[in-house]
Design a protein that fits this description.
By secondary structure, the chain is α+β, with helices and mostly antiparallel strands. It is about 25% helix and about 35% strand. Bound molecules: flavin mononucleotide.
């Protein structure tokens, strides 16, 4: 694989994702950005490209955004400073309110995609969707189905969006949150 992406940086931030969660930013069909909290995801290689796979349940507004506009950014804080904003963006839907405003999040233009990033985070990914796959419940282990999908209000199955990482970088600028 030949890529200009810093793979050590791209994979190294997975520890921060695991510990502190992250923002997934997308855009709806009318061009309005939306942000939701993610706790899951992974960086790897698919189709000879560096990819970030995000798992978005069918019920999310973000799902509609990703289906309408094929780019997204992932912004990983890497510390606790966005705890309140992540809680809001992980419990409210962009169908009902502007979460950027409600959480006091400041956006900045991305380098390679026309979806913004959240200022003040540590690690950024800019991605274009290569593939969207609804997970196959029949192929899932029974305990996974029972824990994550069969309870009322679980939010539906996950769609696995594989985004080619077009850019990945770190910023140590001022924090907000
Ligand atoms: C810590 C945390 C992690 C989350 N991770 C995910 C995730 O990986 N995938 C997902 O579909 N929802 C996840 N959620 C739930 C969504 O962020 C939440 O349903 C959100 O309100 C969806 O917003 P939207 O309707 O604007 O897309 C998470 C929530 C929290 C609090």
């Amino acid at each position: 694989m030949s890529t200009s992406i810093n793979f050590d940086l791209a994979t190294g931030a997975m520890n921060d994702l695991f510990q502190y969660d992250a923002f997934l930013v997308s855009k709806d069909g009318a061009g309005n950005p939306n942000v939701m909290t993610i706790g899951w995801g992974c960086v790897g290689v698919m189709w000879s490209r560096p990819v970030f796979m995000v798992a978005v349940r069918t019920s999310r507004h973000t799902r509609e955004c990703l289906d309408a506009h094929d780019c997204f950014t992932v912004c990983i804080p890497g510390d606790d400073s966005f705890r309140k904003a992540l809680a809001l963006c992980g419990t409210k839907s962009g169908r009902d309110l502007d979460k950027f405003e409600a959480a006091g999040l400041i956006t900045a233009p991305a380098h390679r995609v026309d979806v913004p990033v959240i200022a003040g985070c540590k690690t950024y990914y800019e991605c274009r969707v290569l593939s969207a796959t609804l997970m196959d419940a029949e192929g899932a282990a029974p305990e996974i189905l029972a824990q994550y999908y069969e309870k009322p209000g679980s939010g539906g199955l996950h769609i696995l969006y594989f985004g080619e990482i077009l850019d990945c970088y770190e910023k140590t600028a001022e924090k907000q949150g």
